[in-house]
Amino acid sequence: MEGTRLLISDLDGTLLGDGEALERFAEWFLAHRTRMRLAYNTGRFYESVRDLVDFTPLPEPNVVIGGVGTEVRLFPGGDRVDGWPRCVGPWERSGVQSALAQVRELEPQPDEFQAEFKLSYYADDLACAFLVELRRRLAALGHAVEVVYSSNRDLDVLPAGVDKGSAAAFLASQVGLQPGQVIVAGDTGNDASMFTHGFRGIVVGNAQAELKSLASPDVYQSEADYADGVLEGLAHWLQRDPTLVADAH
């Protein structure tokens, strides 16, 4: 694995959003895939990602992290990677769902967005204080959960210890890579946890404020949007990598 790197990227709003930029990314990745592994880390589930790969220029990944970090599946076979999710505490989905049914600000998303380890809601413009109180209320009922809010609209409730960042860290450990060998890219709040594990980060130019506010030597803020922003960030990080010479332009 020496010299190998892993790119873990969000899809909607990151690689997806500009068709021509996606084609440029696909061309770049095809030229570099012998030295670069690829994983998609998305709120979508595996089947949706499979459709995107079949019908758009989106390159085939090695792995799909789906459902906001709740599943890790190999591509193209779809086999689940053993050992994930790793829940910190007990996950009582029905109990969490019953508790959240009493919160009038939350509207359940359609069934296609729900899963065994994921409860998803629409909730517009929630304040930080509301999210803090929601976590406190669930904890008081004995539920250990992650509450992930993004785009001022989408709220996901997941088992404690499970999110996009922890799933990315699990994948990196599974393939034997150190944090410095992993590059992550995203655009909204549900990507924020990917930037907390010592990976090299890319925030695309069209990102939401929750990621635009990140300031760290390990986070590159691209000026370009969507897949062009991912390419700009790759150029930034890979030119600093003596084991992987890449021209991302």
Word description of this protein:
- The protein has 249 residues and is of the alpha/beta class.
- It folds into two domains: 5-84 and 163-238, Rossmann fold (3-Layer(aba) Sandwich); 93-159, Hypothetical Protein Ta0175, Chain: A, domain 2, CATH 3.90.1070.
- 29% of the residues lie in helices and 20% in strands.
- A seven-stranded mixed sheet has the order 4-3-2-1-9-10-11, sandwiched between helices.
- Helix 1 runs parallel beside helix 7.
- The longest helix is centred in the first third of the chain and has 14 residues, at 19-32.
- It is globular, with a radius of gyration of 18 Å.
The low-confidence runs, each spanning 5 or more residues with pLDDT under 50, are: 244-249
- Helicity range: 25-40%
- For this structure, what is the CATH homologous superfamily of the largest domain? HAD superfamily/HAD-like
Report the major sheet. Answer: 7 strands, mixed
The H-and-E topology, N to C, reads as EHEHEEHEEHEEHEEHEH
Per the CATH scheme, the topology name of the largest domain is Rossmann fold
Overall outline: globular
Q: Overall pLDDT, averaged?
A: 93
In what order do the strands lie side by side in the largest sheet? 4-3-2-1-9-10-11
CATH architecture of the largest domain: 3-Layer(aba) Sandwich
The total beta strand count reads 11
Percent strand: 15-25%
Instruction: Kindly give the count of domains.
Output: 2
Task: Kindly report how far apart the N and C termini lie.
Answer: 25 Å
Task: Please give the radius of gyration in angstroms.
Answer: 18 Å
Structural class: alpha/beta
Tell me the name of the CATH class of the largest domain. Answer: Alpha Beta
- Number of helical segments? 7
